[in-house]
Amino acid sequence: MAAQVLTKFSVEALPTEAAAFFVWDTKLRGFGVKVLPSGRKVYVVQYRPRSQRTSRRHTIGPHGALTVEQARKRAQELLGDVAAGKDPAQSLKTAKEAPTVFGLAPRYITRQGSLRKAGTAEWTQRLFDSYILPALGSRRVADLTTQDAARLHQKLSDKPVQANRVLAILSAFCSWTEKEGYRPGGSNPCKAVDRYKERGKEHFLSAIELSRLGAVLREAETLGLPPTESALRGYAKRNMKAPPRLPIDADAVEAIRLLLFTGCRKSEILGLRWSEVDLARELLVLSDTKTGKSFRPLNAPAREILTRRPQHATSPYVFPGLDPLTPRSEITRAWYRVRQAAGLDNVRLHDLRHTYATVAVGGGSSLVLIGGLLGHTQASTTQRYAHLANDPLSSASERAGADMAAALSGSETTVTPIRQSRVS
Q: Which run of H or of E encompasses 44?
């Protein structure tokens, strides 16, 4: 059919034929409409890229959804891109083939597994499966925006800590996609999203709480502990009389003590191998920690525990699991019983690590030393104890102030006179 000026009236008047045909616009070269045998009409633009000898067609959109004026304007934009050396059809194909979050997530998680501890990779997988993939899995990585990240973060606003962790994982994923060339450098959409404020969960056991904990641990390994409320309900449901005390796993008690005396992470103690215990040098030489290889000093109480621990003939682990060739996987249930009996219901096992650091700070140890004791590789990680490091200084200031106030008031004082020195 002959070319003509395309208008709403002329396009709608085009007849339907047995085969598809094109009608080209005389007002804008390259712009036209394709009429299908079904009667459907679709706007197209035809062009020839600079590097090609043959022409290409690019679909703009259907008549009805677009007016002739809108389609012509879009055709002008596309022809302008062609003049600038771009290829609209190739750009569309590249965009369609661009990987999605769902497509790249397995590669990223596999990489995490090769660079991080197994637990970290499993945690990353859980956050992707539970939050990131359901919300953003179908999105092309190159198209992720700050609004996408902000919506996901806001969706978890009732769980601010979890929301921040999910955002951190998404941010790390986006940074990785930049390095792999799937996004422009410096385009991480998570950087502009404000994190929620988090209230610290750390609990540092006081001297009184430590005393209660010690008494319960001694009781647990000798007499056993009173049944918990849930255990009592279980016995009642089975019409059985509950025993006055229930035994507790002695290995779990030893592991809890070792956590407190070393400040190690739970995974480091439960996965501890005898080959990593150097009693002669009074060290733990941990080969696989969260921060890599690490040396931790062993104090006398920790050495005493390790010295009396029996070594399983076929197990390399200090705390073997049911299968001697695998480490013990958990002591959480035993800890729940212990902490309930000691009146420490809100204390986590990880708080024993914080308590170790707190006691060390209170004894005058510097933050640098505390970082070494805990196996920190970055000083910023140890900064959470900075406010505690001021306590010895405050105590010294209080003593000095009291002594000087007593001297000024004429009361007895223990102030040591300052030796007079000659100024040269």
A: strand 41-47
Give residue 155's pLDDT band: very low, low, confident or very high (50, 70, 90): very high
Q: Torsion-angle region of residue 263: left (phi > 0), alpha (psi -120 to 50) or beta? A: left
175, 172, 195: which is closest to 185 by C-alpha? 175
Mean pLDDT of 62-89: 88
DSSP-derived secondary structure for 101-158: HHHHHHHHHHHHHHHS-HHHHHHHHHHIIIIIHHHHTTSBGGG--HHHHHHHHHHTTT
Q: For the residues of 270-334, what is the DSSP string, one character each?
A: HT-BGGGEETTTTEEEEEEETTEEEEEE--HHHHHHHHHSPPPTT--BSSB-SSTTSB----HHH
Query: Residue 148 pLDDT more than 90?
Result: yes
pTM given for the model: 0.55
CA separation for the pair 168, 123 (Å, rounded): 12
Cα 14 to Cα 1: distance, rounded to the nearest angstrom: 10
Gap between the Cα atoms of 342 and 245, Å rounded: 15
pLDDT bucket at 120, cuts 50 / 70 / 90: confident
Residue 242: per-residue pLDDT: 73
Residue among 288, 274, 271 at smallest CA distance from 331: 271
Choose among 269, 350, 289, 296: nearest CA to 358. 350
What is residue 403's predicted lDDT score, i.e. its pLDDT?
67
The DSSP output letter for 66 is B
Is the alpha carbon torsion for 236, 238, 243, 246 positive or negative?
A: negative
Task: Tell whether the model's pLDDT for residue 10 goes beyond 90.
Answer: yes
